[in-house]
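Blinded run. Sample ID left blank on purpose so nobody reads anything into the name before looking at the predicted structure. Input follows.
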Amino acid sequence: MIDKADLMTKAIQLRKELGEDSNSPVDIFSLVLNIERLTLVYYPMGDNLSGMCIKGKSGDCVIAINSAMSLGRQRFSLAHEFYHLRYDDNMLSVCGKKIGDGKDIEKEADMFASYFLIPAAELECKSAQLAAKHEDGKLSLDDIIRLEQYFGASHQAMVIRLKESTYMNRARVEDYLMSSVRNRAEMMGYSSELYRPLPAEKQYKTYGHYINQADQLLKKDLISNGKYEELLMTAFRPDLVYGEEEDGDVVD
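Blinded prediction complete.
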């Protein structure tokens, strides 16, 4: 039996440990860099795998995210892997494509991810405000899009989360799940970034502990500059080797 209250508590606790409050939307990709000895890898993994977590006996850990999936799904997958990182004793865990499938530990990780990205109190408040504008007191598809844009959640994750809400028209859940919302979100004035994968040139990237460790080894003269560059290239970071300009940089 999955303990929803316990998972909700764990999600709030981890938010606070990472310096966030209990309710606000979070930049989860920035938060992950606050976790010591963790390396984050973006890599296109095909259609059936959304992420994985590998824990080393020495304390070094790697979370890999399928960068070919939508940004919203990547955010959910990363929160899902947070659960495995903190609360799963297995050294290797794999996150499938469909939310709510698999063994109990995967369902727990999915539920944790939902609570981490979409805090219950804030969801209740926002849902009540939106539903109150309709005669039937139920959320429309546009309302669901507003909620997923606010929390930075994938459409699938938001509909599944709202499934048991009193503000959801349950007869329309399957229709909402099957709805393609990218164009509608754009018509409503939102960016469609949440529903798209990373650009092809950004789908291979490594951040965090691995990069820092390579830098420390070079500074301590434990590796040559050539070896340092080799390590960075292996981690898909030619930008650090060749000094590629960053977005927004101005060159005199």
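Unblinding after everyone has recorded impressions. The longest helix spans residues 71-87.
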